[in-house]
Amino acid sequence: MPVYFYTPAVPLANQQKNQSQPIMQANFQAINELITQDHVGFNQINFGEHNKVTFNVQGSAPAFGGQEGLFSMIAGGITDVPEIFVNTSNFGGTTTYPMTASVLSILNPGPNSAGFTYLPSGLQLKWNGITLPGGSQSVTFPTAYPHQCVAVFLTTTFNSVLDVDQSVRLSAMAPNNFTVYCSFRTMTGPSPCSFNWLAIGY
To answer: Residue 91 domain-assigned?
Structure first.
């Protein structure tokens, strides 16, 4: 795409029309190119509306002031690709988070990789499957929640042929882990168990 240069303060004092005209025409061309980059252009139906939104990829989160700033595209972070980050600090939020980041953003995550995804609100879902010995056991998240884990859902593995006599119960949760108790389902006492978990936090 060509680069158009904008010259401010034109026409200058005592400048002749034949001197200012080409500069002003270049300015109008630059303005037109700026508007039509992502918007419906002049003299068209729905002019000024967005066709798309293009983000400049930045190396770090930009600084926002007052009631400014919501979205920015930042390279790196927790995945291998640039992600759209949301800044909520000026609206009662607590952080800048990668709204589009998920396990799908990671190059070659592998079939058994722990999964995660962000919701537009800033909530993050994490999940995985695990087998633990009996009794009270702690499960550490691949990455800790910045503030807190608000819920963990557990589903024991079920064999369609044989009844697996196991049970798992949630006993505690923290930003970086949660604790479960693995036991038999039909009798007292600890027992190894396999289960899947889904955590929600921010």
So the answer is: no
At 64, list the tokens: 């926002």
Q: What is the CATH number of the domain that holds 169?
A: 2.60.40.2080
pLDDT digits (tens, 9 = 90+) for 8-67: 888 878 888 888 899 999 999 999 888 888 999 999 999 889 888 888 888 887 777 766
Q: Rounded to whole angstroms, how far apart are CA atoms 139 and 66?
A: 41
Q: For strand 83-87 and strand 71-74, is the pairing parallel, antiparallel, or unpaired?
A: antiparallel
Query: What's the DSSP call for residue 144?
Result: -
Report the percentage of the chain scoring pLDDT > 70.
86
Q: Which residue has the tokens 């009798």?
A: 187
Nearest C-alpha neighbor of 151 from the set 124, 128, 133, 132: 124
Domain count across the chain = 2
The count of residues in the chain is 202
**Token representation of residue 149:** 């884990």
